[in-house]
Design a protein that fits this description.
The protein is of the alpha/beta class. It has a single domain, classed as 4-Layer Sandwich (Purple Acid Phosphatase, chain A, domain 2). It contains six helices and twelve strands. It has helices at 7-31, 61-75, 93-110, 128-135, 179-191, 215-225, and strands spanning 37-42, 79-82, 114-116, 142-146, 149-153, 195-199, 228-233, 240-244, 247-251, 265-271, 277-283, 288-290. Helix 2 (61-75) packs parallel to helix 3, helix 3 runs parallel beside helix 4 and helix 5 (179-191) runs parallel beside helix 6 (215-225). It is globular and about 55 Å long. It starts with 6 loop residues before the first helix and ends with a strand.
Length: 292
């Protein structure tokens, strides 16, 4: 039987909805005073020096990244984000660090302002401290502001008991965002007065094997803020999209999939002063446009 919503509950949720809508209008007015901002997105490179496996061509991602770099240079981007699984698994930490150092050498040339989302393959054999140390970063989840917008980087590479991935200690099907990160996220969004974009690796818009196990709890925090406009995510290697409670959840195609430049996939995102979000996809990546 469908759940019955009483008048008190209706008024409560209606009030929250109206408050969020009013907040968004105020944020759009502030954003309209800013210049447009454009950034680049890549995901699931799975770089490794090993032969193909199925549809994954590990040694070809450096060439695909080089193509994306040329496009990003032409577009004069503000920053670039890789959405996880930057490298693939290896038998030893030393080999896996070698994969990371090689692909990051090319990634560093693309942009000084670049951001890394941890994927399950990034911390399969490596610990988080090892991965972060190799890329010169201190934190795996954080936020930053650019061009009148707020951006949030999440880390879902935790087991259900709150322990971080690393050293073959985890199952990729059971990603979680632990309580302390949820508390940080809620506080960060509550203190923020800008339109917001979220970057994640594992999916926040579904309940399958590619999803964060507590994704529903994460979505409640995003929805309550009234600021979050879109979530960009990877992990399932496919083009996909859902609008949930007015937030755009866009899953990007993996760069690793398929041989040859025609099977590359990457994108740029333009955020306009009016609040429009325009994703321009290249090769296998679909383009999308979300007007206000």
């Amino acid at each position: 039987m469908p759940e019955q919503i009483g008048r008190r509950a209706f008024l409560k949720h209606g009030t929250l909805f109206l408050a969020a809508a009013a907040n968004t209008r105020a944020l759009l007015a502030d954003a309209a005073k800013q210049e447009p901002i454009c950034f680049g997105l890549i995901t699931d490179l799975h770089h490794a020096d090993k032969p193909p496996a199925g549809t994954r061509y590990y040694r070809e991602t450096l060439g695909k990244l080089a193509e994306a770099a040329k496009q990003f240079e032409r577009d004069k981007l503000a920053f670039v984000v890789e959405l996880g699984d930057f490298i693939d698994a290896a038998d030893t930490p030393e080999i896996e660090l070698g994969y990371l150092e090689r692909v990051n050498r090319d990634f560093k040339r693309i942009a000084d302002d670049r951001h890394y989302v941890l994927g399950n393959h990034c911390v399969d054999m490596l610990t988080k401290d090892e991965f972060l140390g190799a890329i010169g970063r201190e934190k795996s989840f954080y936020s930053f502001d650019r061009g009148g917008w707020h951006f949030v980087v999440l880390d879902s590479c935790f087991r259900s008991d709150g322990q971080p991935y690393g050293r073959k200690s985890s199952d990729w099907k059971y990603a979680n965002i632990p309580a302390d990160q949820l508390e940080w996220l809620a506080a960060d969004l509550a203190a923020n007065k800008r339109l917001t974009i979220v970057f994640a690796h594992q999916r926040l818009d579904e309940g399958g094997v590619h999803a964060v196990r507590n994704a529903a709890e994460v979505r409640r925090i995003l929805e309550k803020s009234g600021n979050v406009q879109a979530v960009f995510q990877g992990h399932s290697h496919q083009n996909d999209y859902q609008d949930l409670a007015g937030i755009h959840y866009c899953t990007l195609v993996a760069m690793i999939e398929g041989s040859g430049p025609e099977n590359n996939g990457y994108s740029t995102v333009e955020l306009t002063p009016s609040g429009d979000i325009r994703l321009t996809g290249f090769r296998q990546q679909q383009s999308r446009h979300w007007p206000v």
